[in-house]
């Protein structure tokens, strides 16, 4: 696993999807759950390498309800029935089944984005959210992470910011690709494109040095300049 800050680690599944491990003062926290129940086996294998145990997981945090972030949730919850699920207040109705997952209206899409929209998974298996998170909430038991609202890619996406390390775990607020740098998120999956751009501008105004998002590479050092450059390009 890649160490992002003291007690905070990123693990990339199949070289594409990221999950996060937080060694907290009240058990282990996991941010996002990948695409499948195979996450359980990954965590059983990887956590001991950090001196942690799978059974120490007490907190499951979600940035948003897209399938590649909640795919392992059902099996993880079955294996850890006492672990609490955390989600943003606006995203919670989607996770509980009270609202449908929104993606980009197909009428707004063209070309590859339009074609991609036909392959999107929008089904969400309803679950219970024990802890609803709001902007500015501070999770002292999970290294002091602070909740940041980052809607647009999903209606209620959140991120987690650690001021002491200037670290943002940002869900799919943007992509970070080895050859192309930081980019806008997937257009077809983004419910509100204008709001997605506003969230990028919001991150650009934050003091971010380390950026780790839902897919591929973390930007470890110098992330702020790259995010500001992206914010300047989008209109």
Describe the 3D structure.
The protein has helices spanning 39-46, 67-70, 73-79, 92-96, 111-117, 193-204, 223-233; strands at 2-5, 8-13, 17-24, 27-31, 57-61, 84-88, 131-133, 138-139, 145-149, 158-162, 167-169, 175-177, 181-183, 210-212, 219-220. It is of the alpha/beta class. The strands form 3 sheets. Strands 1-2-3-4-5-6-7 form a 7-stranded mixed beta sheet, with no helix packed on it. Strands 8-9-10-11-14-15 form a 6-stranded mixed beta sheet, with no helix packed on it. The model has no long low-confidence stretch (mean pLDDT 96).
Give a concise summary.
With 235 residues, the chain is an alpha/beta fold. It has seven helices and 15 strands. α6 runs antiparallel to α7.
């Amino acid at each position: 696993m890649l160490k992002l800050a003291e007690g905070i680690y990123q693990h990339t599944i199949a070289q594409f999807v990221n999950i996060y491990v937080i060694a907290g003062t009240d058990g282990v926290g996991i941010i996002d759950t990948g695409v499948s129940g195979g996450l359980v086996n990954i965590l059983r294998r990887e956590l001991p390498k950090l001196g942690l145990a799978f059974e120490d997981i007490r907190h499951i945090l979600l940035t948003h309800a897209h399938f590649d972030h909640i795919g392992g949730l059902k099996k993880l919850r079955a294996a850890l029935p006492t672990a609490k699920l955390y989600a943003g207040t606006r995203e919670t109705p989607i996770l509980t089944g009270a609202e449908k997952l929104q993606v980009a209206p197909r009428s707004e899409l063209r070309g590859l984005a339009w074609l991609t929209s036909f392959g999107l998974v929008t089904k969400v298996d309803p679950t219970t959210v024990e802890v609803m998170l709001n902007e500015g909430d501070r999770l002292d038991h999970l290294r002091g992470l602070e909740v940041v609202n980052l809607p647009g890619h999903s209606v209620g996406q959140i991120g987690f910011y650690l001021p002491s390390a200037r670290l943002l775990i940002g869900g799919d607020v943007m992509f970070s690709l080895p050859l192309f740098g930081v980019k806008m998120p997937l257009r077809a999956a983004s419910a509100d494109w204008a709001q997605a751009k506003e969230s990028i501008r919001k991150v650009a105004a934050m003091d971010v040095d380390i950026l780790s998002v839902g897919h591929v590479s973390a930007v470890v050092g110098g992330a702020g300049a790259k995010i500001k450059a992206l914010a300047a390009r989008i209109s």
